[in-house]
Amino acid sequence: MIDETHSTTRRSWVASANGHADFPIQNLPLGIFSVSGGPASGGVAIGDEIFDLAAALELGLFEGLAARAAEAASGGTLNPLFALGREPRVALRRRIGEILDADGRERARIEALRSRLLHRAADCRLELPGAIGDYTDFFAGIQHATNAGKLFRPDNPLLPNYKYLPIGYHGRASSIAVSGATLRRPNGQRKSSTEAVPSFAPSRSLDYELELGVWIGPGNELGRPIAIADAPNHVAGFCLLNDWSARDIQGWEAQPLGPFLGKSFLTTISPWVITPEALAPFRTAQASRPASDPAPLPYLFHAADQAEGAFDIDLEVLLLTPGLKAKGLPAQRLAITTRAISTGRLRNSSPTTAAAAATCVQAICSAPGRSPRPPRTGWEACSSYRPAADARWRSPRARRAASSRMVIPSSCARAAAGRGLPASALANATERSLRPSELSSAGHRHQSETRCL
Predict the structure, then answer these.
(1) CB-side neighbour CA atoms (13 Å) of 132
(2) All structural domains of the chain
(3) Is 397 exposed, middle or buried (0-12, 13-18, 19+ CB in 10 A)?
(4) Which of 235, 365, 380, 390 shows the shortest CA–CA distance to 312?
(5) Which phi and psi (to 5°) does residue 436 adopt?
(6) Confidence check: pLDDT of 298 > 50
(7) What pTM does this model have?
(8) pLDDT band at residue 210, thresholds of 50, 70 and 90?
(9) Which of 126, 316, 346, 358 has a CA between 20 and 30 Å from the CA of residue 422?
(10) Each residue of 383-400: pLDDT tens digit?
């Protein structure tokens, strides 16, 4: 639903938010942060600042549903907020928009409280937004499924079931970390087509995957499916996700049960959760199917999902090598995708509570009440959303919807030749990897960067 929070003329009294490429007042993503070693608490990105929800609660700036949502989001994890569902989240977004509005009726009183309400993002430590208890990884795009299949089944890349049902596998939540975590190159068995027997050694084919993370909100009872028509009510937000992969280890171990150690060593996600409401202007129809393809079975089909179950967003992957960096040259684009990204066909009959989902695809993760994982540092290594650069905030007919960037040096990652990148992220992340030889001299400067050993 489009409302006053999407107004392209709305500006904030937080000056850095106006014209901000990532965090204008129309975005208002949620996250968890801490300041100077203090306790973790919930906040909202606005320009170059973070709006402190706990402080705003103490100052009496919320009431009703918005107060309930703010209280749920003010602790060390967003799980309680995710579990509340859509209406409290919408009320919170509207109230925060009013509080930060440059033309708001309460501006003078609220702006006088600036020192208590706002923290410089550069001074904050960003953490995982939620405690993730479960994680499912899906093939969400036929191009990705076909290209990935070519790596392992060149003669039969796309299996027949793909065009009939969502294809995914049960992942692991224990090694999901916020963007900026140190990545250690995994050891494992590798066997190329030219080798007679496998060997055990570090991966030679460390890869990245640009993906869309889907945070799941209100759950369902075990064995009670969520209908496609009701699926939007269970989505709490979106993030950028990089599902790091060791392709040589994966290729050898994946038959017959699928990925194991080649996909379990690290997955990094952005710390900011973009709400479904912030993305409302970018909804679009599902991509049309070729006439020769089968129609979805009735339980996977709903008219509303077909009409607006995808997002019209732009995603890109940039490569920054040590050589480019040393010469002061910009990162080079590896790929860009401008096709609509589907959020439909997520069907789950296992129990979920306030949750997280990761997709390459798409993925569903449940996050029961438990402590979040250790925090990571760094603002520049974190995800952000880029609607301000999008003309759609000024015109509903504009093409460009959002931009996601990932910067990864070639010392740690490679793009498989001819491989399409999975649809993924509504944010802007920078993840830099270092060679082992660089780590000893990197010092504090690289603490917020994803490092590869």
Answers:
(1) 29
(2) 4-127 (2.30.30.230), 136-452 (3.90.850.10)
(3) exposed
(4) 390
(5) -55, -35
(6) yes
(7) 0.77
(8) confident
(9) 126
(10) 333 333 344 444 333 222
The dihedral over CA atoms of 86, 42, 427, 396, expressed in degrees to the nearest 10, equals 40
Judge whether residue 450 has pLDDT over 70.
no
Q: Answer whether 346's CB lies under 8 Å from 231's CB.
A: yes
CA pair distance 117, 115, nearest whole angstrom: 6
The phi, psi pair for 342, rounded to 5°, reads -80, 145
H or E segment at 16? none
| Active site members | 144
Structure-token pair, residue 284: 């679009």
Q: Which residues pair with 240 in a beta bridge?
A: 212
H or E element, residue 46: strand 41-46
Q: Give mean pLDDT, residues 311-322.
A: 84
pLDDT at position 56 is 98
- In this prediction, what percent of the chain has a pLDDT beyond 70? 74
User: According to DSSP H, which parts of 36-183 are helical?
Assistant: 53-58, 64-73, 79-84, 86-100, 107-111, 114-117, 142-152
Contacts of 290 (CB under 8 A, 6+ apart): none
Angstrom distance (rounded) from CA 118 to CA 60: 15
3-class secondary structure, 419:
coil
